[in-house]
Amino acid sequence: MSDLRIGIVGVGAMGADHAERIVRRISGARLVAVSDPDTARAEELAVRLSGGGPAGGSAAAGAGAAGGAVRVIGDPLELVGAREVDAVILASPGFAHAEQLFACLEHGKPVLCEKPLTMDAASSLQVVEAEHKLGKPLIQVGFMRRFDPEYAALKQLLDSGELGRPLLLHNVHRNKANGPGFRSEMIVRDSMVHEVDVARWLFGSEISRITVHAPKPTGAVPDGVLDPQFAVFELANGAMADVEVFVNFQVGYEVRCEAVAERGSATIGLGSGVVTRAAGHWGGAVPEDFRVRFDLAYDIEVQRWIDAVGRGEIDGPSAWDGYAAAAVCEAGIASLNSGQPVAVDLADRRTVLG
Ligand SMILES: NC(=O)c1ccc[n+]([C@@H]2O[C@H](COP(=O)([O-])OP(=O)(O)OC[C@H]3O[C@@H](n4cnc5c(N)ncnc54)[C@H](O)[C@@H]3O)[C@@H](O)[C@H]2O)c1
Fold it and tell me: Where does the UniProt annotation place the signal sequence (predicted)?
């Protein structure tokens, strides 16, 4: 079977990371096109990953050992429709996803869309409905923690029933620092959204109510920014989850969680991989960011997506999962603003998907 030809929209941190992954580590796929309003960034990436210099126009040719020519296409929607692109990775900012997802659906192109699916629950639901009308799943959402070996092992353990019924999930999510434009609601929509998906997935239940609290903020953020935040999720099956999200922790990237069930608990993300004893100290390294901690999860996510697309399927979080997370985050932002618990307004899955 010939390689799946991938186009990437948005080649900032995440898109460039996926581009490297496709070219250097993934089998069954090759990168053929990139698009980014920052054309210099797109050109640089295309040239680097084409393994040679630009061959004229905006196409970076020069067949490299790594995988052939990568074309720079100015308009993201043109990339989606391009005949040489079989499937798309959307790594543009969340505000651009809705229009680009609809274009993927219109052209019948499978798409791996980085989270968030879209910026609000209403547009996410429209995406779910539009995909459903086509009668085949084309959208997979980039909740990559589901592919992390530690999270996957925890899910398997909980599903096995060995620990009994899951009751509680404690989550910690810390980043080293965030840029000056970061606002309080982005902590919910861009960071906490991962724990929203993790809680729904691990416990196999929708979140019906969310409360987001904010203690007195760290001195590391400008006035008005609420960081850290502490949220409580109430799940429809009666379980509960809490999450601390602290995106200006200063130290490094730290994600861990503990599931508590009737007959035991299980913890992942302790970061105790390699512990050294030297020069009078012992310890390990704190990852700088998510790309280091979840590198393997992204590789597994993308490889499984490529393999599934070859079979005409998806193999991971669906558009519905993206919509459900958007609905929870919308309620979370309302709770952050009001200080009160907010019920999640989620459409009935059977009504929407039949
Ligand atoms: N799964 C994860 O762990 C994870 C981690 C980080 C980011 N993300 C998600 O990935 C996406 C990109 O985040 P990032 O950190 O790479 O951001 P970034 O700012 O580093 O890169 C975004 C890129 O998109 C380009 N861009 C801007 N508007 C665009 C448009 N309309 N169409 C196409 N490209 C456009 C920008 O020029 C930039 O190069 C976001 O949806 C983000 O939430 C996911």
Answer: none
Q: Find the CATH number of the domain harbouring 267.
A: 3.30.360.10
Residues 332 and 283 in one domain: yes
C-alpha of residue 48 to centroid of ligand 1, in Å: 20
17 CA: nearest ligand 1 atom: 16
Note whether 211 and 330 are same-domain residues: yes
Contact 177, 254 (CB under 8 A): no
Can you give the residue range of the structural domain that contains 169?
149-293+324-353
Edge to edge, what strands does the sheet with 4-9 contain? Answer: 59-60, 70-72, 29-35, 4-9, 87-90, 111-113, 139-141
Q: Flag the least confident range among 42-56, 64-78, 229-243.
A: 42-56
In this structure, the answer to whether residues 160 and 278 fall within a common structural domain is yes
Q: Do residue 347 and residue 201 come from a single domain?
A: yes
**Cα 134 to Cα 177: distance, rounded to the nearest angstrom:** 41
| CATH number of the domain bearing residue 55 | 3.40.50.720
Cα 30 to its chain centre, rounded Å, is 21
Residue 273 pLDDT: 63
Whether residue 248 has pLDDT greater than 90: yes
Confidence of residue 51 (pLDDT cuts 50, 70, 90): low
140 and 265 co-located in one domain: no
The β-bridge partners of 169 are 241, 259
Pocket test for ligand 1, best of 11, 14, 145 (most atoms within 8 A of CB): 14
Q: Which atom from ligand 1 is nearest to the alpha carbon of 38?
A: 37
Shared-domain flag, residues 90 and 182? no
Positive or negative: CA dihedral 318, 94, 105, 110: negative
Give the count of domains, the chain. 2
CA-nearest residue, atom 9 of ligand 1: 114
C-beta 322 within 6 A of ligand 1: no
Is the Cβ atom of 9 under 6 angstroms away from ligand 1? Answer: yes
Looking at residue 62, its pLDDT comes to: 38
